[in-house]
Amino acid sequence: MSPEIESHEKISNAICMLLSHQPGVGFILLQFDFAPSHDVPFMGVCLKEYSTRINCVYNPNEIANLTVEEIVAVLQHEVAHAMQCHCQRRADRDTELW
Asked: Could you tell me the pLDDT band of residue 59, with boundaries at 50, 70 and 90?
């Protein structure tokens, strides 16, 4: 199975797990648009331009190497970024510095 397909399936399973055990976090994740990219080292979130949705970009090679339980923890972490408005607060600052 390719890393793109495997990572997509694992993320979907992790979201289902969160919807069952932490419905609030799971519901927030339903507002995310997930996109694979080899340009990011792991996973990150940012606001989608002209939208209320959140982009979640992930490296499929890295995510495919994790268990579903580990992906649950990573997704919880990314939701925390969104809930604490880190996307808006960072503004145009250099991501490497912040």
From this structure: very high
